[in-house]
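Q: I'm writing up a methods section and want to include an example of the input and output format. Could you take the sequence below and give the corresponding predicted structure tokens, formatted cleanly so I can copy it straight into the document?
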Amino acid sequence: MSRTTDILLTALAPAIWGSTYLVTTEALPPGYPVTLAALRALPAGLLLLILTRRLPPRAWLGRAFLLGSFNFALFWTLLFVAAYRLPGGIAATLGSLQAMMVILMARGWLGTPIRAGAVAAAATGVLGVALLLIGPDAVLDPVGIAAGLGGAASMAAGTVLSRKWQPPVSALSFTAWQLTAGGLILLPFALIMEPALPPLTVTNVTGLAWLGLIGAAVTYALWFRGVARIEPGAVSMLGMMSPVTAVFLGWVVLGQSLTFVQGLGAAIVLGSVWAGQQANRPSAGFTPVRPVKSWAWFA
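A: Here is the clean output for your methods example:
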């Protein structure tokens, strides 16, 4: 497939992640962040393991659990903490710093050059997210800010290390390993830290199914596929599609207002995402990783 096709398929993942806030607030019981994160990761990971029938070899267990921690367990936990303690706009803006962190981490771990255009696109994208989401009554909380920055750093590290460590399996198998590992890490914390869930309604089950099957299994398979094929800086810029989708769904589904400033912010974000793809075009030495051809749609 062409680089453009790879970018479009990868961009579907953060665009769908933008529905997480809507589904969480409208379809899931409040006050169970770790439990819901475990229920989102572990069943999806086990289902993919059954479908792909590929367990990680012993040599890959440590990497699978480290990546599962960065990409899911630690990231989702810190994301919920930031969401609870900060206005959504502040939390999302801190999360958008991930693109800048990926550029720096990719330099250290992958030897990827730091390009001025890529840095400028990432900084402009952060500004666009701030215009899109931050209101005049935003209140800063030190713990929330630390959680937001930590979550961005966790996802950035997971993205770069997922590019550095590529097993000879399909993206579905790679996703299955990480989701299962992340869910297993989250499960004991959920049992210890939170009370038992109340009886789930049909709406609750539907929301969990969406977040687990589509918002985790399918989207992360697309994301890790893109991580293997596209430059790290270009992949990280695509993550800024998530707040744009979240605001659009809030406007369409919940009837929330959309101001001129928010529209300007959305335009800036989309422009920065495009600029980031141009600035992060591969150098002559960049070689995409081509996974094995099982489950070829994701390979």
